[in-house]
């Protein structure tokens, strides 16, 4: 079976303020249902890589293949759609829309994708909230939640379009170890039960050890 | 839920969370639009009033007998001017009567003309108004009252009494208000006048005439055409002027030329008579537009600033929306919608405020010697101003929103997320 995500010789340079070769010949594969963590020293290029893999950053050379489709040369608008269909993203800082309710935050990506009607989307969103144990908070404004709660809502939002891959940039970075464990368990469960692949950047060794595979980065290279 | 309705929903939620700034931006538009409407309604109201005063009351073509010296002197036709050099010093006009030579046939031909709405004769005589030992210099014009009233709103000038008194009483007179004041006369009194040859007549005051211009009101009175001819001791064919009203004012210039060519008379058209008046109107209109447009542009800058600020505050939201599948165009639309909501709110409020203020102005008492029939400030409720106001508000808010919105479209979500 084809890998769900594959890169071939991705290179990226920053030119400002001086030319800086941040990613060097990155070739990797992510299999279906695989739970992979990315580790490496601060500044080695993990976030930069994740932005490219999530199709948000298009300024690179090399090839990015998602679910067998080469998306390296797609237009921004097409990428927006590919992204919402295939990838759920969890940021280090939860990043919810503060004025909207928890439920609306989760529903918006699905409403935009427009695959289901409003009612179905609402039902799905409530389901995802339930998975994360947050159904009581559905009608709260997102700005009123605690950090850990926001993080869980962000995961629920990443799930709403039933993506094939969930990417996370230190999703447990600012959670205490108890909450970090909860988040890890949730992600693990999701990858087992909903057949999602996970690609999670983390500095947490305990977290990484529990994943299927660790990709180690250093100075823009993948070293293992 | 269609794409647009999601975007609409997001725009609304954003604005609702910033009620204060939204109101401030909308009030900027309100101020611009309402000032635009007030200025235009008032200014054009004033213009219309003055137009009404001058244009509706002024004949389109005035026909009279010219007493200027003729351009070709008899010598020129006797000694060919091309081969001779004729010098004549001190040319004086020939003594001629101030009557139109063949007024009655001209009048009846004019009345038959399809372009002519109406034509009225006037007979003008110089008189003295007698006041004890004082004699006031003056002019009495004989008119056809019903025609004058129909064609030139003559009624507007009569501040007391009734114009029909000229028809009811043969010796009725509509006395100039300045004369009435100086001689302390009022409606119902009698007044003695002297004609140039010293004959005295007794006239009965049926009304007071006030044009608003003191130099006219101090000398001018009106009587029936017959009465004026009788004062002059002249026959019923003695007519000094003919005033013509055309169906279309634009015909005035060619029509007056035509009359001069056909008959041996002088004709002056309304454009010639009121050249300076026209410029006054157009300058007032120009100033109103300039001020209003400035106000709207200032309002536009207000929206531009506030939206720029919104976008700055909403950087994270923009990054999130883009990261979760919204396109740059969607994000741009969100901010354009916000601009348009502000514009529509502001414009709607502005129309209301503008209309309200116009009604208030319309009811402010405005009494002027010069405008006896006008009691309140003039206001023109032309729907065109309201339509122009809305269109301008929407266009300017769209433009003011477009620039920041395009910036939002181009924002790179990665930059924003990394910037945290
Ligand atoms: N916009 C940019 N312009 C120039 N250099 C940049 C830019 N963004 C990141 N860098 C540099 O690229 C390198 C990789 O950054 P990146 O954020 O990917 O590191 P990281 O591995 O995620 O680190 P951390 O673990 O601290 O999050 C860093 O050295 C950083 O200084
Ligand atoms: Mg990072």
UniProtKB/TrEMBL annotation, chain A:
Domain ABC transporter stretches: 5-223
GO CC entries: membrane protein complex
One Pfam family cited in the UniProt record for this chain: ABC_tran
Source organism of the structure: Putridiphycobacter roseus
Name under which the protein is recorded: ATP-binding protein
Keywords: ATP-binding, Nucleotide-binding, Translocase, Transport
GO molecular function, one term: ATP binding
Keyword Ubl conjugation part of the UniProt annotation: no
Family, similarity comment: Belongs to the ABC transporter superfamily. Macrolide exporter (TC 3.A.1.122) family.
Transmembrane region(s): none
From TrEMBL, chain B:
Compartments where found: Cell membrane
Keywords of this entry: Cell membrane, Membrane, Transmembrane, Transmembrane helix
UniProt topology in membrane: Multi-pass membrane protein
GO cellular component, one term: plasma membrane protein complex
Main location: membrane
GO biological process, one term: lipoprotein localization to outer membrane
TM spans (from-to): 21-43, 286-311, 331-364, 384-403
Domain MacB-like periplasmic core: start-end pairs: 22-261
A Pfam entry, by short name: MacB_PCD
Annotated ABC3 transporter permease C-terminal domain residues: 290-413
Family: Belongs to the ABC-4 integral membrane protein family. LolC/E subfamily.
Protein name in the entry: ABC transporter permease
Organism: Putridiphycobacter roseus
